[in-house]
């Protein structure tokens, strides 16, 4: 396994990292909306490569979602901003059920490993000073050597590409939180993530 150098074409790959809760009254509709409409809509936009969503086993928020795009600028593109400015009727109905939303545009700093795991362990690094020296390449390699770890990724926030308030975010109520960096480990099993 090797880290992706920051000057390689693949270092342009970006992530939109999202953690959120959902009010119990809206959970069933949220699940249907997400799989039937929202995920297909987002990954159908130009420059979006994929989207993945995880449900909490342990932790302080119910859901973690990330979208992979070809470059950070995709998340400031006219096509994406048009979607945020014109939420669908189902999106308008679901957004008020969102709670404790954290949403950050990130650039991938490193990616080690060649497998996707079924379990994601996420660490939200909130302090920019902590993010600056988050982990060195040797630390990431050590994590990858742990039993059951399939891949290790480190992402850093792209604050210049943060989306300001939009009609979609206004429907959620308060301001979305952000993080300075994200550490994502994918494992084969829950026990390995623990």
The number of helical elements comes to 7
Please give the order of strands in the largest beta sheet.
Answer: 2-3-1-4-6-7-5
What ranges have pLDDT less than 50 throughout 5 or more consecutive residues?
Answer: 1-9
* Helix content estimate: 25-40%
User: In terms of structural class, how would the helical and strand content be classed?
Assistant: alpha+beta
- Give the ordered list of helices and strands: EHEEHHEEHHEHEH
Structure summary, number of beta strands:
7
Overall geometric form: globular
Radius of gyration: 16 Å
Terminal CA distance:
23 Å
Mean pLDDT figure: 88
Estimate the strand proportion.
25-35%
Report on the biggest sheet. Answer: 7 strands, antiparallel
How would you describe what is shown here?
This protein is an alpha+beta fold and 194 residues long. Helix content is 27%, strand content 32%. The protein has seven helices and seven strands; from the N terminus they run βαββααββααβαβα. It has helices at 27-43, 78-85, 89-94, 128-132, 137-144, 167-171, 190-193, and strands at residues 14-22, 48-55, 63-69, 98-112, 119-125, 149-157, 181-187. It has a seven-stranded antiparallel sheet. It is globular. The two termini are 23 Å apart. The model is unreliable at 1-9 (pLDDT under 50).
